[in-house]
Each structure stands twice: as structure tokens, then as C-alpha cells.
Amino acid sequence: MFSNSAGRGKKWTERSHRWSYSYFRSEIPAGLEIDHLCRNRGCVNPWHMEPVTSLVNWERGISPWRLNGLKDQCHQGHPFTPDNTYQHPSGSRVCRRCSAKHRQAYEERQNQKRRAA
Predict the structure, then answer these.
(1) How far apart are the first and last CA of the chain?
(2) Could you please report the per-residue DSSP string of 68-117?
């Protein structure tokens, strides 16, 4: 990170890749973020970067969240259809069939504990 403490007023820091792009290429337009075209987040080579919108940066990404969003079935092979998928307010998806199976197993364990007590 680049720190500007020489001038008067507020201190500020800027991420190294953003500073590198601004210094060697051009100013980053407002509302855009830097996308690492080389997919190396530690890279500061300004010719490996491009200013894009947040959505474009996310769509190009290889993060676990992005890759999970591309899946069309759960880990048990049930399809993510509107009828079989619960969309959590946070954005995550849950397979209704798997959820029902887990709930049933939990209730059976609870009933066994009650009978044993």
C-alpha cells in the first residue's frame, strides 16, 4: 500500500495495484474498480489491469462464491430448480430435498435421545 503522509491534512492509503495503474496508465474512472486480467491479485503490473464495473469484475472472477453460483445442482446431484431451491436473503442457495433429509435425520436423533432419557 502507498501511504501519503508528507502533505498536510488527512493521511490516506491506496492499494498498490490501484496506485500503479493510476501512476503508469491513467486515472481510474469513478465507479470502476481494477480487474487483474492475469488473475494474480498480488500483481502490480499496470498492463495486467483494466478498470471495469464491479459486476464485470465479479463475472470474470474465479472466487469460490462465483464458481458456486455457476453450479446447477447441489453436491448430492439434485437440480437447482425454482421448486427445489431455497434462496436465502443473503444470496446463498439451499437444496430443499437435502434440507428435508437433514431435518428428518435431526428429528430422528432427537426422538432417540428423548426415548433413551
Answers:
(1) 60
(2) HHH-SB-TTS-B--TTTEEE-TTS-EEEHHHHHHHHHHHHHHHHHHHHH-
Which residue carries 500483481 as its cell?
43
Task: State which amino acid sits at residue 74.
Answer: C
- Tell me the average confidence (pLDDT) per consecutive run of 10 residues in the chain, 117 residues long: 56 86 95 93 94 91 83 93 92 92 96 91
Give residue for cell 433429509: 101
The pTM (predicted TM-score) of the whole model is 0.54
Dihedral angle over CA of 25, 27, 32, 35, nearest 10: 20
Residue among 73, 69, 89 at smallest CA distance from 81: 73
pLDDT at 3: 53
